[in-house]
Amino acid sequence: MVEVKDVELSKDKSVFSQLAEHNHEKVVFCHDHDTGLKAIIGIHNTVLGPAIGGTRMWAYASEAEALDDVLRLSRWMTYKAAISGLNMGGGSAVIIGDAKEAKTEALLRKFGRFVKNLNGAFITAEDIGMTAKDMEYIRMETQHVTGLPEAMGGGGDPSPVAAYGTYMGMKAAAKKAFGSDSLQGKKIAVQGVGNVGAYLIELLAKENVQLFITDIYEDRLREVSSKYGARVVGMNEIYGLEVDIYAPCGLGGTINDKTIDRLKCKVIAGSANNQLRDETVHGAALEARGIVYAPDFLINAGGLINVCSELDGYNRESAYAQTERIYKYTLDILDLAEREGIHTQLAAIKMAEKRINNISKVRSTY
Ligand SMILES: NC(=O)c1ccc[n+]([C@@H]2O[C@H](COP(=O)([O-])OP(=O)(O)OC[C@H]3O[C@@H](n4cnc5c(N)ncnc54)[C@H](O)[C@@H]3O)[C@@H](O)[C@H]2O)c1
Questions:
Q1: Pair (129, 248) in one structural domain
Q2: Residue 58 within any structural domain of the chain
Q3: Could you tell me the distance, in angstroms and rounded to a whole number, from the CA of residue 343 to the centre of ligand 1?
Q4: Ligand 1-lining residues (CB < 6 angstroms)
Q5: What pLDDT sits at residue 135?
Q6: Does residue 137 share a domain with residue 57?
Q7: Ligand 1 centroid, distance to 99 Cα (angstroms)
Q8: Mutation test of ligand 1: which of 195, 200, 224, 298 has the most ligand atoms closer than 8 Å to its C-beta?
């Protein structure tokens, strides 16, 4: 049985006022006594199409924390899908519990039944705490699952496509900052050489850049460094490096009060989600420092584009072609930010909201 502290969802906010804050459409609390399932499915916006988003399994300290996570994640999925030109809305799910201990086939399949009952209004994929095998269990109960292995007719690992979109976004940001999208000779610091980071480095190495890398795992660093001739730097050292481009490809929140004044780069473009600790404060601070920030939820959308392309019968070529458009979308957003004198993350949100508002004249929900 999953043990979660039973606390008030929030000290000062009711569930409905939390939904109202960012205009979430629907939240489904899923409970099953026999399997111990406690899950929350959050549907933020379905104007453009069914809500898509990952299912995360995490040992949240409280129900309030789980709800907060699902509301936050689902909202960003709306923006990510809208700005990438996808006909999809934003959603997300969290299963409360320790993925190493509480996960069973029955629990996952029960969760699949809840997804099924939403009749396609929510389509899910793998996120933190979930594996491809877990998604196969969910798939046994509902067809509304994507991001499946190639053997099951899916697109397989989305990381190379996510890296390609990040690379496109980085080139667009370089064009804005340096007047050319060629990265030749540029000094680029990549933080996190996991799945996406390593594929990004492979693309960058072809452009003859000077690479600086850091990661928590030394064996991974050694491998990437010897393969691409990248210089290994310390995890804290990376922020103060004299580089042209900083690419956060590890965890979110690395652009914060402690790091922002140390940055010497002219461009930030990486795959990590939620790079700005506080999107308003740190988005504006980057603008004030003249650093071109390529909005994370736009340039890392290649992964989402890849899993969405499964829904119409997976085609790798078309997933890459759609991802390539991130170059143009990034330039459009950087231009909009300049024209309106706003920071680039805000410009990206505005552009996503504009598309949703326009299409809401055609239809209001899925
Ligand atoms: N995989 C995808 O398709 C995809 C798509 C969109 C966005 N993203 C985002 O991109 C980021 C990377 O995803 P991934 O799939 O490559 O994950 P991953 O777990 O394979 O790799 C992340 C790497 O970053 C390292 N890392 C974490 N924090 C670090 C820090 N502070 N300093 C240095 N290294 C650090 C980790 O050790 C790990 O090697 C994540 O934020 C993820 O949410 C991934």
A1: no
A2: yes
A3: 25
A4: 158-159, 162, 191-197, 214-217, 220, 235, 249-252, 271-273, 300, 303
A5: 92
A6: yes
A7: 19
A8: 195
Residue minimizing CA distance to atom 13 of ligand 1: 196
Closest C-alpha among 294, 241, 281 to residue 265: 241
pLDDT, one tens digit per residue, over 261-314 is 999 999 999 999 999 999 999 999 999 999 999 999 999 999 999 999 999 889
Residue 251 Cα to ligand 1 midpoint, Å, equals 6
Whether residue 179 sits in one domain with residue 104: no
Ligand 1 centroid distance, CA of 26 (Å): 29
Question: Are residues 138 and 212 located together in one domain of the fold?
Answer: no
Shared-domain flag, residues 165 and 292 = yes
Q: In what order do the strands lie in the sheet with 26-32?
A: 26-32, 37-45, 89-96, 51-58, 122-126
Same domain, 217 and 349: yes
Q: Phi/psi at 200 (nearest 5 deg)?
A: -65, -45
| Nearest atom within ligand 1 for CA of residue 273 | 41
In a domain, 269, yes or no: yes
Q: Which atom of ligand 1 is nearest to the CA of 270?
A: 10
Range of weakest confidence among 80-89, 147-156, 293-302, 322-331: 147-156
DSSP string, 264-302: --SEE----SS-BSSHHHHHHHHHHTT-EE--HHHHTTH
Distances (CA, A) of 137 to 1, 105, 144, 148, 258: 19, 6, 12, 11, 42
Q: What's the gap in Å between 190 CA and the centre of ligand 1?
A: 11
The bridge status of strand 51-58 relative to strand 89-96 is parallel
Q: How many domains does the chain have?
A: 2
- Which of 145, 168, 190 is where one domain is finished? 145
Q: Whose CA is nearest to atom 27 of ligand 1?
A: 250
Q: Are residues 306 and 167 in the same domain?
A: yes
CATH of the domain at 222: 3.40.50.720
Q: Look up the domain containing 72 and give its range.
A: 15-77+91-145
Q: How far apart are CA 285 and CA 297, in angstroms?
A: 19
Are both 134 and 252 inside the same structural domain? no
For residue 10, name the pLDDT band (cuts at 50, 70, 90): low
